[in-house]
């Protein structure tokens, strides 16, 4: 059983079922679910559309009603200890995997690992379990164990593109960009339609200040699916870093068209308006792929600055606590020589916990003749 792993850039909204019963486990976990089967050995529940089985000795109560000792004893009589119970055919390796994934989705990584371990005892040659156990270890800040599991999954199934992809994510999180590129590329070699791998490989190319290859990856995604806002946003970042601000603006605009509340697209489009026509006089921060940040003299017409102000106003309207909106608007005010308003926005961003680029602060000090 393979499950596509999605990155944070793309979120899917799912409707939640109405749960009828509260199941409390001996571990202390509480699960709201529908109980669909209950006998002298197991309790089977429907949790968010996933069927999950528990031995009776693992369940403390259902809707406040204790699970009877007799049923616990009946389960324990089959084997001498709970650890040995995993060899029973009642709960399969697949069910342990599903149960572990449910724990993982709830942020209970320790219990997820426990169930993945049980799945592997029942079925040792199960690459998907190694993949998901590796993800749990990664979230538990145990990257070495995660890498071991990803590599084991790949060893067992050399065509397991998700394992390469997820291992690439872990490499990227550690700053090992060449390793990440290699794994994303392998995943794409196996599956040429692997959108997430293209997206993350393109993101790494931006971090490596290689916007040309990033744009090529984003173009491939758009051919596969032209409706993903994040792709246009990131391609806009890549174009901006190449100095093609007009194309960057077009891509940010497309991202906003697809997702009208895309805050970063508004702020980056505002920045592109600020620096349009003056890219050569400005310095790009290559370590800031999330936002196109320029420092240096700007020469803008009034219309572009007004467009930038409108974008900043929209960001602040959508989220008054999004500090970057104030920082970018301060940049506009600096370009308009409205230094008092620029200071107000810088102070607001700092109140929200942001740390504006020191070069912007120094520039504002020099231009305004003020220290703060």
SSE topology sketch:
Blueprint: E1 21-25, E2 30-38, E3 42-47, E4 50-55, E5 59-62, E6 65-66, H1 69-78, H2 93-105, H3 109-122, H4 127-139, H5 143-156, H6 161-173, H7 177-190, H8 195-207, H9 211-224, H10 229-242, H11 245-258, H12 263-275, E7 283-284, E8 294-295, H13 302-318, H14 323-335, H15 339-351, H16 358-368
Antiparallel strand pairs: 1-2, 1-5, 2-3, 3-4, 5-6, 7-8
Helix pairs in contact: 2-3, 2-4, 3-4, 4-5, 4-6, 5-6, 6-7, 7-8, 8-9, 8-10, 9-10, 10-11, 10-12, 11-12, 12-13, 12-14, 13-14, 14-15, 15-16
> Could you say which overall geometry the principal axes of the C-alpha atoms support?
elongated
- The CATH architecture of the domain at 245-372 can be named as Alpha Horseshoe
The strand count comes to 8
CATH class of the domain at 245-372: Mainly Alpha
CATH topology of the domain at 245-372: Serine Threonine Protein Phosphatase 5, Tetratricopeptide repeat
What is the CATH superfamily of the domain at 245-372?
Tetratricopeptide repeat domain
Order of helices and strands: EEEEEEHHHHHHHHHHHHEEHHHH
Question: How does the major sheet shape up?
Answer: 6 strands, antiparallel
Overall average pLDDT: 83
% residues in beta strands: 5-15%
As residue ranges, the low-confidence spans are 1-18, 69-89, 279-299
Specify Rg, calculated over alpha carbons: 26 Å
Oligomer: single chain
Arrangement of strands in the largest sheet: 4-3-2-1-5-6
| Secondary-structure content class | alpha+beta
Number of H/I helices: 16
Helix percent reads: 55-70%
In whole angstroms, the N-to-C terminal distance is: 58 Å
